Amino acid sequence: MTNYKFLEPYTFANGATVKNRIVIPPMTEESAMADGTVSRDELHYVSLRAGGVGMFISPVANVTPDGKGFEGELSVADDRFIPGLSKLAHAMKGHGSKAILQIFHAGRMSSSSVLRGTQPVSASAVAAPREGMETPRELTESEIETIIQSFGDATRRAIEAGFDGVEIHGANTYLIQQFFSPNSNQRTDKWGGTVDKRMTFALEIIKAARKAVDDYAKSPFILGYRISPEEVETPGIRLADTLHFIDTLADQPIDYLHISMGNAWRTSLNDPSEQTPTILRIKKQVNGRKPLISVGSIKTPAEAEKVMDAGIEFAAIGREYLCEPNWVEKVEAGLEDTIHYSINRAELDDLGLTPILMTFLEGMQANIPFEGESENKQGIEASPILNE
Ligand SMILES: Cc1cc2nc3c(=O)[nH]c(=O)nc-3n(C[C@H](O)[C@H](O)[C@H](O)COP(=O)(O)O)c2cc1C
C-alpha cells in the first residue's frame, strides 16, 4: 500500500515544499571532530539516510564554544565551520530531502571537562538535579545578548552552508529550556520571574534567527522550534506553562513546532488525571497556526499514518531510522515487509553506525533492538534526552 497520507507533500506558509511528511529528527552520533568540524563518519551516516524523507534534521550544533554539551558535537560557532557544514548540507539534501541544521547552547547540561576547564553557564547558578552535574555560572545580561546574537550568526552560517532551514533547539533541558524553566531560571531581572519573562530568551532568539533569514536567505528558508512539554523536577515546567508558551510561539515568525517526547502519544508526565495525549493538547492550543512535528517511538507505516489521522502534519522517525536507512523508499516501493526493525551487529559499518554511537546509545538506554538479543527493558523512559 503506497497511498499513505504521510507520503503526500507539504507546502509551508513561506512557500517551501517538502516532498512528504516523514522527518528524521535530530540525532547526534557524537562523531564530529574534536573541534566540532563535520567528520567523514558523519557524512557517511547521513548519506545513507538522505533522500527518502521530506525533512532531515541534523545532529545538534553548538552556536558558541561554551555552548558545547558533549564530545563529538557539531559546531556552527564560527565561519570556519561553513565548508564542512556545506558538505553536510549537500549530503543531507541528496535526492530531495530538505536539510535542516539544529542549533543550540547546552548551558548547564555541559561540564568543565567538555569545556576544557571553563565552568558551564546558565540562567541561574543552579545545578541540574541529576547525579554529578556541576553548578553553572549565572550569565550576565550582556552575555545573554551575545548568545542571542550567536543564534542569529549560526542561522546566517546555515544559510551560507546551503541548508534549507534551521531548528532552534528549545527542548531536552538545554539552555533555551533552562531559561523557561523555574528550576534553572531564578533570575529577578527581565529574563526571569513570571512565565512571560521566562519566555523572553526564546522569543529573542527567534527574532535574531528570523532577522538572519530575512537578511541572508535568497529562497524560502524553514525556521523551526523544538520544545519539550514538561519537566519532572519541582519546581519545573508543567503542561499549563507550556500551553501558554505554545500559544505565544504559534504567533511567532517560525515555520513549524517540533514537540519532543519519547512516546508521541504519551500523556502528562506530572498529572496522572490528565488523560488526553499531550500532543493533542498542544494541537488544540496551536489551532492550525503552525504545522507540528510529532516524535517518539513511531516505527511502522501504520504508526506514522496514525499521526496523520490525528491531523498532525509531520511524523518524525528517529531510532527506527538507525535500523532502517531506506524506510520511506521501502514504503514507496511497496516493500514494507522488508523494513528492518532491529540492527544486526555484523552490519554496523554498512548502516554507518560507529562504535562511539553504539556506546552513546547504551549510555542513554536507548532501547535499540538488536537481532537475536532481548530488548533493554529499562527503556526510553529512563533517559532525559529522549523524554523531556
Ligand atoms: C542517538 C540519539 C541522539 C539524539 N540527539 C539529539 C539531538 O542532537 N537533538 C535533539 O533535539 N534530540 C536528539 N535526540 C532525540 C531524538 O530527536 C528523538 O526525539 C528521540 O530519539 C525520540 O524519537 P524516536 O523514538 O523516534 O527515536 C537523540 C536521540 C538519540 C537516540
From TrEMBL:
Keywords: Flavoprotein, Oxidoreductase. GO terms for molecular function: FMN binding; oxidoreductase activity. Transmembrane segments: none annotated. SUPFAM superfamilies: FMN-linked oxidoreductases. Gene3D superfamilies: Aldolase class I. Pfam families: Oxidored_FMN (PF00724). It comes from the Bacteria. The keyword Nucleotidyltransferase does not apply. InterPro entries: Aldolase_TIM, NADH_flavin_oxidoreductase, OxRdtase_FMN_N. Residues 7-337 form the NADH:flavin oxidoreductase/NADH oxidase N-terminal domain. This is NADH-dependent flavin oxidoreductase. The lineage of its organism: Bacteria, Bacillati, Bacillota, Bacilli, Lactobacillales.
